[in-house]
Amino acid sequence: MHAMQYEFTLPADYDMDVIRSRVARVGHLLDDWDGLGIKTYLLRERGMHGSPVNQYGPFYLWNTMEGMNTFLWGGAFQGPVNDFGRPRVRQWTGLAYEEGSAAGSPAGYAVRRRQPVPEGAELAGFMADAAGETERLAAQDGAVLAAAVVDTRAWELAHFSLWEHGMPKADGDVYQVLHLSAPGRGALPRGRQW
């Protein structure tokens, strides 16, 4: 499993309905994308749920590198690049994935929490704790799914979780989920990834 996210930070007075309309128009295009586990079309709105910015920030969990590369280099990614500019694309390696207690429910919110892997940390124990946190998040009422991923270049851990409507029971940046494409969700490997 591989994770990917890019974000477009928009002006404070940007009409976020433009993003909602865009997702309503094109969100279905990845509903059957080969190699994709899930894509969440995410929106943060300035002043809502503690967000200091307006931001469009899709988050992906990929089953295959080929699917991700086809998205990035095969033309589909060029659409957002043309509309908003070329963003920095973060990529993480999967540590753990769990379906949540509300796995069959539609997702209303997402939470992403990034944290550094401390210098000198015993890596096996730190990553095992991250996998345990994924299980804990997934077991919470209203959790649709949870994942933990790591960027070994920046030594950054990220927890990502989806929640039913209502406030999520996780700390981090809160996003509205505008659409969920999940063609390979069932194929995402569950539990620890090592």
The assigned CATH architecture is: 2-Layer Sandwich
CATH class: Alpha Beta
- Sheet with the most strands, sense and barrel status: 8 strands, antiparallel, barrel
Summed up, the domain count is 1
- Beta-strand content bin: 35-45%
Strand order of the largest sheet: 1-5-3-10-7-9-8-6
Task: Work out the number of β strands.
Answer: 11
Estimated radius of gyration: 16 Å
Secondary structure blueprint with pairings:
Layout (H helix, E strand, L loop, with lengths): L1 E5 L1 E3 L6 H10 L9 E9 L9 E3 L2 E4 L2 H9 L4 H7 L4 E11 L9 E8 L6 H17 L3 E9 L4 E8 L9 E9 L9 E2 L2
Antiparallel strand pairs: 1-5, 1-6, 2-4, 3-4, 3-5, 3-10, 6-8, 6-11, 7-9, 7-10, 8-9
Task: Describe the model.
- With 194 residues, the chain is an alpha+beta fold.
- The protein has one domain: Alpha-Beta Plaits, CATH 3.30.70.100.
- Strands 1-5-3-10-7-9-8-6 form an eight-stranded antiparallel beta barrel.
- A hairpin with a 4-residue loop joins strand 8 and strand 9.
- The mean pLDDT is 97.
Describe, in short, the structure shown.
By secondary structure, the protein is an alpha+beta fold.
